[in-house]
């Protein structure tokens, strides 16, 4: 019996990181194909500063995500019994981590001493990106409703 998680491309961390990247790139791509302010800003380049800010925020958020994922959170290689102060054992990683914060399943890694700042920058930038993207979607719906209303 083959265990799915034994296949290299079925590992949880690969799937979750691929889904995250696909969402962060896919949702704006869909919005660019529709009649939205993002299309007017990015595709027709009517608002260059708007377009550059949005794309920079998106890139920054992705870079922080992958830094938080890939930077060693501060694993302790010595046996668990001799762990230093403020470290904690992670059951998911099977390792002790310096200044352990939590095991993040959206990153599929621990958040600890060395990736904590990237994790916070990721949270800040992805929150801003989500709010901005919701506002673009909302404005497009309002714009379409107004158009339907006034043309009727
Ligand atoms: Zn341990
Ligand atoms: Zn962990």
TrEMBL record:
Highest taxon listed in the record's lineage: Eukaryota
One of the GO BP terms on file: protein targeting to membrane
Membrane protein topology class: Multi-pass membrane protein
Keywords from the named record: Acyltransferase, Lipoprotein, Membrane, Palmitate, Transferase, Transmembrane, Transmembrane helix
Reactions mediated catalytically: L-cysteinyl-[protein] + hexadecanoyl-CoA = S-hexadecanoyl-L-cysteinyl-[protein] + CoA
Pfam families, A to Z: DHHC
Entry EC no(s): 2.3.1.225
GO CC field: endoplasmic reticulum; Golgi apparatus
Palmitoyltransferase DHHC domain residues: 77-143
Residue spans crossing the bilayer: 12-32, 52-76, 118-141
Subcellular location(s) of the protein: Endomembrane system
Keyword Lipoprotein: yes
One Gene Ontology term of the molecular function aspect: protein-cysteine S-palmitoyltransferase activity
InterPro entries: Palmitoyltrfase_DHHC (IPR001594), PFA4/ZDH16/20/ERF2-like (IPR039859)
Protein family (similarity comment): Belongs to the DHHC palmitoyltransferase family.
Stored PANTHER family: PALMITOYLTRANSFERASE ZDHHC12, ZINC FINGER DHHC DOMAIN CONTAINING PROTEIN
Domain free text: The DHHC domain is required for palmitoyltransferase activity.
Name of this chain's protein: Palmitoyltransferase
Organism of origin: Octopus vulgaris (Common octopus)
Source lineage: Eukaryota, Metazoa, Spiralia, Lophotrochozoa, Mollusca
């Amino acid at each position: 019996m083959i265990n799915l998680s034994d296949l290299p491309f079925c590992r949880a961390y690969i799937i979750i990181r691929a889904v995250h990247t696909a969402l962060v790139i896919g949702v704006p791509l869909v919005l660019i194909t529709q009649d939205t302010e993002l299309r007017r800003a990015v595709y027709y380049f009517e608002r260059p500063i708007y377009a550059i800010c949005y794309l920079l925020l998106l890139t920054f958020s992705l870079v922080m995500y992958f830094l938080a994922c890939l930077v060693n959170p501060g694993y302790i290689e010595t046996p668990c019994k001799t762990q230093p102060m403020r470290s904690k054992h992670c059951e998911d990683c099977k390792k002790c981590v310096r200044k352990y914060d939590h095991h993040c399943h959206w990153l599929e890694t621990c958040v600890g001493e060395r990736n904590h700042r990237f994790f916070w920058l990721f949270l800040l930038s992805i929150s801003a990106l989500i709010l901005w993207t919701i506002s673009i979607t909302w404005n497009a719906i309002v714009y379409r409703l107004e158009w339907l209303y006034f043309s009727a």
